[in-house]
Amino acid sequence: MSSTTDKIKGLANEAVGNVKQGVGNLTGNDKLVAEGKAQELKGEAQKTVGDVKDGARNLADKVTGKR
Questions:
Q1: Start and end of every CsbD-like domain (predicted)?
Q2: Phi and psi of 34, rounded to 5°?
């Protein structure tokens, strides 16, 4: 998976997680709040993976002289 794909999926999971948390809070559904928080954290991790891939690619490019 590319770094951009990781970042996009991460943003989507964060957004859905936030919505779940909001709905859970409004309805008093603690399970939905917990699911939303877990999905938000998954999204943050996916975005971090994308950032790490970008960093590794940039470093490799500098080492090999491609940039």
A1: 6-57
A2: -65, -45
